[in-house]
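FORM 12-B: Structure-to-Sequence Request
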C-alpha cells in the first residue's frame, strides 16, 4: 500500500494511487480511526450532514449513521467520503500521516494524462473504475482551481462485455462524470450541471453544460431556449448536438437531451492533446458558471478566469512550434525588475551589450508549451526569470540536480506573484512541465 511521505512535492505518480484500487487497507488500517479523521476534516471544512449527503450522494440516514459511527465504514465509503473532501483516502488510512503535508497533486495526474491512462486501462480492471470514479473527477476540479468540497460529484465507470454463450453485449452504458456546485441545487429540482461522458467502447467523448430537472420535463424546452439565447449558443451547435445524440442513442444519456444548453460530442480520435484538453475543460467550466449566473444569480467564476485574456491564434501557433517567447517590452520589464542581475546567482558576471547593460536572458518558469490554459498571463513578467547566459543554458541542459535546484529557487521566489496572476501551479507540476518528472 502506498502512503505519502511528508516531503512529497516532487513525487509524480504514473498510476492511480493504490488506495483507490485495492480494498486491502480495510484489513490493515484502524477503520474507526479513519472515520474519526474523516469526520474531523468534514467539521474543519464547515460541512453539515446535509452538505456531506449531497457531496457523496448518500441518503441522510446513511450519512448520519456513518458520521456517528453507527454504521461500519467500508472501503467504498472511505473513497467517496475522501473524494467529497478533496482527498484520496491516504491521509485518513495511515495513522502516522499528517494531513497538513498532504498534496492532492502528488496523488493524481493532470486531466489529459488521466484520460490517456483511462483509455489504456482494461474495462474490467480496478484501475479503470478508480480512474473514472475518483482520479479524473478530482483531477478536473484540482486543475480548475476550485475547492473540491464545494462541488458534488456523481461518477460511474462504464463496462461493456460480450456474453460467451449468447454472444450478446451487456453493460452498454457510458462512463459519466457530473458536477454541480452544492449551493446551487434547489427544491425546484432544476440544477445547472456540467459533465463528461465516454462511450462504452471508448470511441466517443461528450462534454456538456445543462439543466438537470429531476421532476420531469416541466417546460424545459422553453427554458433551454431562454438560456441558450442568454448564453448566445449558436443554432448550428444545437443541431450538431441533436445529430450526435441520434447517432449515439444506444448509450447517450436521455436526461441530457431535455436539459442541454451547450454540448460537444466528438470521436476520441479527435480529442485535444495535452494542455489543449485542460483548455477545453476550462471553457466548459466558464460556460457552466455563466449558466449558474443566469439561472441562480450566483457568481461562481473564480477571479483568475475573469482576468484571463485568451491567447491569439498566432501565440497558439508559436507555442505549438516551439517559437513562443516573451514580448520585447515584457523582457525589458523582467530585466529591470532584477536590475540586470542573475536570479540564480546575483554574483554571476556577464558581458556588456550594445545598450550598455549587462547581457541577461529571460526564461519562463512555467513553460509556454504547457501554459495554454492560463491565457495571456503565461507571457507576463510574473512568469519570467532573469538569468545570465550560463544559468539559462544550465536550466535547459544542466544536470538533473542543478536544474531541480534552480527551478525550485525560482518557483519559490515567484510563486506568490504567479498565484496573484491566476497561474496556480504546484512545484510538482512545474518540475514535470520542465521535464523533471520521475
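FORM 12-B RESPONSE
SEQUENCE OUT:
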Amino acid at each position: 500500500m502506498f502512503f505519502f511521505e511528508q516531503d512529497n512535492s516532487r513525487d509524480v505518480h504514473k498510476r492511480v494511487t493504490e488506495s483507490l484500487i485495492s480494498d486491502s487497507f480495510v484489513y490493515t488500517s484502524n477503520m474507526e480511526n479513519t472515520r474519526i479523521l474523516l469526520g474531523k476534516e468534514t467539521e474543519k471544512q464547515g460541512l453539515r450532514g446535509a452538505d456531506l449527503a449531497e457531496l457523496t450522494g448518500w441518503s441522510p440516514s446513511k450519512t448520519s449513521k456513518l458520521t456517528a459511527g453507527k454504521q461500519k465504514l467500508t472501503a467504498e465509503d472511505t473513497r467517496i467520503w475522501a473524494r467529497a473532501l478533496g482527498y484520496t483516502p491516504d491521509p485518513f488510512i495511515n495513522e502516522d500521516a499528517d494531513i497538513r503535508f498532504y498534496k492532492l497533486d502528488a496523488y493524481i495526474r493532470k486531466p489529459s494524462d488521466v484520460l490517456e491512462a483511462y483509455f489504456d486501462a482494461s474495462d474490467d480492471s480496478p484501475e479503470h473504475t478508480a480512474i473514472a470514479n475518483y482520479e479524473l473527477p478530482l483531477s478536473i476540479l484540482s486543475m480548475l482551481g476550485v475547492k473540491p468540497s464545494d462541488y458534488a460529484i456523481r461518477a460511474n465507470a462504464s463496462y461493456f462485455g460480450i456474453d460467451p454463450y449468447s454472444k450478446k453485449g451487456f453493460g452498454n452504458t457510458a462512463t459519466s462524470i457530473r458536477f454541480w456546485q452544492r449551493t446551487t441545487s434547489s427544491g425546484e429540482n432544476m440544477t445547472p450541471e456540467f459533465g463528461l461522458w465516454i462511450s462504452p467502447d471508448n470511441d466517443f467523448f461528450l462534454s456538456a453544460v445543462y439543466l438537470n430537472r429531476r421532476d420531469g420535463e416541466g417546460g424545459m424546452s422553453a427554458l433551454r431556449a431562454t438560456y441558450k439565447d442568454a448564453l448566445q449558443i449558436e443554432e448550428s451547435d444545437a443541431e450538431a448536438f441533436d445529430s450526435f445524440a441520434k447517432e449515439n442513442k444506444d448509450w447517450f444519456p436521455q436526461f441530457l437531451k431535455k436539459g442541454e444548453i451547450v454540448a460537444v460530442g466528438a470521436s476520441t480520435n479527435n480529442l485535444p492533446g495535452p494542455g489543449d484538453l485542460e483548455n477545453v475543460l476550462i471553457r466548459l467550466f466558464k460556460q457552466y458558471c455563466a449558466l449558474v449566473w443566469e439561472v441562480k444569480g450566483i457568481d461562481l467564476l473564480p477571479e483568475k478566469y475573469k482576468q484571463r485574456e485568451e491567447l491569439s491564434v498566432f501565440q497558439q501557433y508559436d507555442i505549438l512550434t516551439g517559437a513562443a517567447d516573451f514580448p520585447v517590452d515584457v523582457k525589458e520589464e523582467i530585466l529591470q525588475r532584477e536590475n540586470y542581475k542573475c536570479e540564480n546567482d546575483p554574483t554571476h558576471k556577464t558581458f556588456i551589450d550594445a545598450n550598455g547593460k549587462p547581457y541577461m536572458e529571460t526564461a519562463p518558469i512555467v513553460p509556454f508549451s504547457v501554459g495554454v490554459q492560463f491565457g495571456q498571463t503565461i507571457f507576463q513578467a510574473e512568469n519570467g526569470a532573469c538569468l545570465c547566459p550560463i544559468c539559462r543554458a544550465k536550466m535547459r541542459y544542466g544536470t538533473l540536480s542543478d536544474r531541480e535546484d534552480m527551478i525550485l529557487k525560482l518557483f519559490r521566489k515567484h510563486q506568490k506573484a504567479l498565484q496573484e496572476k491566476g497561474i496556480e501551479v504546484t512545484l510538482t507540476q512545474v518540475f514535470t512541465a520542465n521535464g523533471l518528472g520521475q
